[in-house]
Amino acid sequence: MHVTYACAVVGDGLSIGWPRCGIPHCVEPLQNNRHWFCASHQNHHDVCAIVGCNNPVLQTTVQDANGGPPKTVKKKTCVLSVPQKIESKHSERSTGSFYIHTNVVQPVDSFSQNTKSTPEQDLKEDFKSYTVTGNHIKGSMVTHHVAKNTGSIGTVDTPTDDCPSKLAVGNWTFKAHFGHQRTHNEQTLVRPCGIIFAHAMMYNAEAVSNFLIMLKNAFSVPGAQKPEHIMYNTNCLAWQQAENDPWFNGIGMCVNVWHFRSKHAASHKYCQCNCNPAMYPELMDPWKNWFFNTSVAEQTNAWLGGYNSMVQEMLPAKYEFFLDEMIRPCNKEVLQCLERQGHHPCIY
């Protein structure tokens, strides 16, 4: 009997995380989860919340009705009219009249078989923007837009925009940060048997270069053994960066089976020639069935996403401690389950 050996790991991202500093690529933790910026960037609390506007926020003095000392009230935007209207539109979302006019929906039938549910992985907040129409000095109208967040997916470090930008006439689209920013996603590495091997936070995006750094850090500790196969849903992008790195020599980097069949175009020659899991016979048995569950990371993240409501306001130290304490008994239970099934799990 011919016996083959293959050590594999599966990677995937989950859109949960902690409040972070509003300055891109700043990894300094917030002093408080109500802050928007870390201690090194505290001065940005007094800068307009409109993205790209560096004007100071508008401050007004309000007299105390009881005769006390006057109070200084800070707005979140600058003195310009358009930012003020955008802030007013944002504030309307917390009023009852806003929901009366925008959230008129049919009653939900709890017994209906057609009820749509949101996937547990899509936990990230939606993208919000504001469109200003008309004269931008006076007589303009602000419209609030919400775009669905597609979840976490690997991207290149410097994405290119193939579509030219719209000319700056007629309408103006603005983005604003009326609150603290959040880290992008939690990246996990899971063994095909279900053991969570490692997890790391991606601050601004699931860039494939960060995923490669995570792999090298996780498998470069003393005693760690590099896997023969790494399954990842955008390995076609990751391998283009990793193929010239000697650390990845001899490692198969395939797209997991479901994504390869459903999400990657058959016309993508690089992906078909370099990231097709069918290229590696050791991943299949003689009947062409897959030995490994290459979707195990997504299935594990569905469980991990259940803690989102608990950790979303935690700062990094408490967040990491909590996840580690949840993952440890989970791994222990998986090991016990494998032993009961007659397998021989080992930790190395």
Summarize the structure.
The protein has 348 residues and is of the alpha+beta class. It is 25% helix and 16% strand.
Keywords:
348 residues; elongated; 12 strands; five-stranded mixed β-sheet
Structure description:
The protein has 348 residues and is of the alpha+beta class. It folds into two domains: 161 residues; 90 residues, no CATH class. It contains nine helices and twelve strands. The strands form four sheets. The chain has a five-stranded mixed β-sheet, with helices on both faces. Strands 6-5-7 form a three-stranded antiparallel β-sheet, covered by helices on one side. Strands 2-8 form a two-stranded antiparallel ribbon. A hairpin with a 7-residue loop joins strand 5 and strand 6. Helix 3 packs across helix 4.
SSE string, helices as H and strands as E: EEEEHHEEEEEEHEHEHHHHH
As a whole number of angstroms, the C-alpha radius of gyration is: 25 Å
Give the oligomer, counting copies of the same chain as homo and different chains as hetero.
single chain
Number of distinct beta strands: 12
Biggest sheet, spatial arrangement of strands: 10-9-1-11-12
Helix content: 25-40%
Mean pLDDT comes to 80
The largest pleated sheet is described as:
5 strands, mixed
Task: Classify the secondary structure makeup into a structural class.
Answer: alpha+beta
Number of helices: 9
* Domain unit count: 2
Low-confidence segments, given as residue ranges, are: 104-123, 160-169
